[in-house]
Backbone:
């Protein structure tokens, strides 16, 4: 009786939550209709982490910290600086890197470019595709440039064959495009299901750790929940990068979400061109491109993305509401934050905004959540409400509290430096940040610094 009994489990295709019965809403991630029935052999239930334990299979003794030999951590440069920075200085050999993103955003293109640069260095690279034929990959490769013979292409979805090929070829880096097309014979569920995706990742994890191969895994983000999303494997891999951007705009942002070997708040900026992805090193200039002149409701803020300051334009449009309930909309920033800031303006500054529609937009379609953009949103709203343009050469930043105070933000020096580089002449910032800057004497020439401690003061200063 039933040692090899097959049981059915319901998995959330979004976050991997496991349940023995079907539910309409996933208790893990609160998404609706994402639970899908999958059959798993009873013995292998909860297979997710098994790869890891197997990798550490042989018997070992615990050791003290001092007994561990430190070796200089070796990193392999991808020769794409934007990517290297997000990875924390390059690829760590033996690491498993998940690259997630919407279909068509450019994941395959980016990884094929990584393959090109690694193979140009004389490293053996294996690109395994379960989605495209060799001919289709070739077509893409021709657009990107010349490839050396160190890059090997392989169209396969069976993990046994892939494992065997990797063992035989011993490449330094492998790309799996995409994890949702891979399957293992031992799991009866369909490719793309949570149990398949986890099992496949477990096998790749074991390969990466035992052979010291860096493996990139592509994971499609899906809205419909028909295949398991990359979030299901975030906990298994070393590094998680998400590729985002408006499909209609040409720039793309690569965001580090998890990194066992570096910081996570770095972003890389790319532009999709005819010949693949190009790095954008002057992101601020790029983002401010095409800014309207002398328009009300437009103001420039500075957001820190990891170690890098980026100037962005915030636009607001405030107009009389024609219906009883005013309409509020935010693109690229949090709507509840916009509502909160407008409530602060209403209560602390006395602006009658409660019967106004308001639309707030971060130009260029980029998403920013740093509190330092608060002051920018407030100034843009006031500027639009009063129909008075803000001086184009003025930068603002600061976090706003509920009593209308302007609170300090970190890295004021880098923010001002970036603004000065792009020819800004005035900077309105939190008072405490100004005092700190004056004390350290780090104010660039040619830029006037005005510290403010409340929203009212900031509005007067603009
Ligand atoms: P792709 O890398 O196939 O996306 P993903 O693997 O994330 O699904 O990118 C597809 C899009 O990129 C497609 O719409 C065409 C565009 N593209 C370019 O604009 N230039 C290029 O050089 C390449 C290769 C693709
Ligand atoms: Mg692809």
Residues:
């Amino acid at each position: 009786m039933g040692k090899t009994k097959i049981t059915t489990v319901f998995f959330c295709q979004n976050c991997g939550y496991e349940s023995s019965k079907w539910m309409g809403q996933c208790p893990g991630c609160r998404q609706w209709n994402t639970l899908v029935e999958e059959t798993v052999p009873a013995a292998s239930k909860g297979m997710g982490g098994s790869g890891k334990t197997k990798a550490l299979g042989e018997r070992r003794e615990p050791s003290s910290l001092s007994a561990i030999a430190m070796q200089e951590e070796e990193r392999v440069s991808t020769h794409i600086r934007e990517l290297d920075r997000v990875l924390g200085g390059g690829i760590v050999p033996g690491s498993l890197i998940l690259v997630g993103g919407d279909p068509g955003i450019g994941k395959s293109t980016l990884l094929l470019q990584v393959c090109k640069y690694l193979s140009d260095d004389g490293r053996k690279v294996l690109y395994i595709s379960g989605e495209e034929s060799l001919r289709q990959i070739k077509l893409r490769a021709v657009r990107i440039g010349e490839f050396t013979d160190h890059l090997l292409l392989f169209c396969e979805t069976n993990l046994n064959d892939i494992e065997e090929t990797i063992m035989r070829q011993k490449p330094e880096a492998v790309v799996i495009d995409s994890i949702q097309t891979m399957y293992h014979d031992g799991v009866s569920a369909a490719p793309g299901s949570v149990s398949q995706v986890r099992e496949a990742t477990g096998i790749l994890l074991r390969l990466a750790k035992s052979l010291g191969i860096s493996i990139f895994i592509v994971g499609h983000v899906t809205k419909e929940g028909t295949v398991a999303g990359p979030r299901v494997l975030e906990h298994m891999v070393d590094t998680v990068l998400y590729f985002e951007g408006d499909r209609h705009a040409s720039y793309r942002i690569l965001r580090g979400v998890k990194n066992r070997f570096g910081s996570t708040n770095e972003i890389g900026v790319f532009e999709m061109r005819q010949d693949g992805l190009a790095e954008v090193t002057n992101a601020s200039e790029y983002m401010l491109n095409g800014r309207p002149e002398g328009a009300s409701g437009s103001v420039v803020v500075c957001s820190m993305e990891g170690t890098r300051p980026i100037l962005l334009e915030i636009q607001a449009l405030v107009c009389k509401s024609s219906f009883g309930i005013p309409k509020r909309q935010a693109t690229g920033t949090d709507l509840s934050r916009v509502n909160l800031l407008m409530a602060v303006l209403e209560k602390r500054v006395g602006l009658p905004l409660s019967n106004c529609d308001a639309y707030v937009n971060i130009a260029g379609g980029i998403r920013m959540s740093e509190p330092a953009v608060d002051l920018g949103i407030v100034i843009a709203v006031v500027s639009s409400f009063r129909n008075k343009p803000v001086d184009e050469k003025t930068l603002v930043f600061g976090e706003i509290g509920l009593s209308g105070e302007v609170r300090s933000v970190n890295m004021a020096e880098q923010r001002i430096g970036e603004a000065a580089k792009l020819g800004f002449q005035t900077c309105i910032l939190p008072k405490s940040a100004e005092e700190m800057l004056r004390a350290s004497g780090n104010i660039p020439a040619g830029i006037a610094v005005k510290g403010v401690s409340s929203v009212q003061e900031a509005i007067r200063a603009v």
